[in-house]
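hey so i finally got around to running the thing on that chain from the lab meeting. sorry it took forever, my laptop kept dying and i had to restart like 3 times. anyway pasting the input first so we r on the same page abt which one it is
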Amino acid sequence: MDKNIRKVLLLGSGALKIGQAGEFDYSGSQALKALREEGVETVLVNPNIATVQTSKGVADKVYFQPVKAEFVERIIAKERPDGILLSFGGQTALNCGVELYESGVLEKYGVRVLGTPVQAIIDTEDRDRFVRRLDEIGVKTIKSQACGNVDEVRNAVAALGFPVILRAAYALGGLGSGFCDNEEELLTRAEEAFSFSPQVLVEKSLKGWKEIEYEVVRDRYDNCITVCNMENFDPLGIHTGESIVVAPSQTLTNSEYHKLRALAIKIIRHIGIVGECNVQYALDPQSEDYRVIEVNARLSRSSALASKATGYPLAFVAAKLGLGYGLFELKNSVTKTTSAFFEPALDYVVCKIPRWDLTKFHGVKRELGSSMKSVGEVMAIGRTFEEAIQKGLRMIGQGMHGFVENHEIKIKDVGKAMHEPTDMRIFVVSKALKLGYSVEQIHRLTMIDKWFLHKLKHIVDIDQQLKQHNFLSEIVKWMDYTELMEYLEAPEFVGLLREAKVYGFSDFQIARAIGLENDMSMEEAGLMVRNWRKELNVEPVVNQIDTLAAEYPAQTNYLYLSYL
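ok and heres what got predicted. didnt touch it at all, straight out
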């Protein structure tokens, strides 16, 4: 660690808004914790009082001021920090830091940028420079052209041909971006994009390709690791913040996984990032052809997900690397045993599912695209994809119980609703499967990978098997408890009950499938199934081990090792 760094200024994420929310509060809080552990005095700039990082005791000093260059310059003049961290407050902090650098404020007050150099940030944020930098190492990017006005956009589209996507440089959450299939859409999108940024990149559309992300860490000694890779459930065309994201990737071949991993490390080394970065790819589902969509030279929305999914504290480690540490000198503060140089390996599946509150906004379009509308997200962990996604769908605040056994949604045209995605798309897919659409038909309409669709169909198949036992609701009325349990103990039913639980069904979902809700309340029905399960010993394996360990304390270690 550089002992000359005694006071550090950290730029927070500013006001909460769509596209930038709690994930950057998480990053900033972790960074402040890491700095405090090293005895470094911390100064935080963040106007949002409803965050963890602005709580008493997290930072030594907090300025509730906008994260804008004119305000931050006055704070720098007063506090005279030795260094500044730009990559923990999302796009707002990054843009402010670049402005301070280019205007000479940082040089004037002798403030060092810790971690990734500002030039590397500019290389990733300026779309034209970004393409040129990756061309230097032979890494493929989407065919594109940087434009400064609407006329230049028109000329670029004339050369590329429709369909195209417009991307605004230095924009947050895909703000001002969108797909254009004709001249009318192009002019509307171009005017919107230029209202957010002075530079707009026109790219050839790769709608329908897979979207893959890698979280990569590099120290100043050029050591690199990939902490987590993630795959979007939806194909390219829907912003990653609007899509269900699965970690680790489920549909990549071994060759594809390692090819993209090697490219991510090659990119981070060439650009010169120190700390953490996020590399996003478009991958052709029919071949190993790829394009790099973008590189975020900062902690991103995906970084918070990757940290919690893997148990690797990305922001904490990135802050330490900014102080000059090497990966080999740090411990993983979560596991407390493994080195920060150790890549996590997951034997479980993590699903991130966005949460929308579109009903609260009058006149808003429900269609999803390349700019963000979601206001939050949930994360679910399971042994299987089916379990994780069902858990997640129960938490998104739309009154759903999982992928199946929800209240009926009314859709005029199911095919159109799948082809033109909205915030209800996953439930439209559920309805389509129940209506008899094949995996192939849904794939053609949505371009969602068939692997995911087969897994979702598996959930529907289990649900259909449960429905075949709906006569149980009648048996419950007239059989006594002993006779009922004799029926339930049949191997076929016990096996189905266990399979349903393994693949993420809640007790209430099972109760509704077999018709118990018709004669009792939702709570009573779910509780009845729960009691059946306990009687039939259909419980998580670890619960059974806990019971055995209490009975045979001398064998505790053996029991847990057997489970592991």
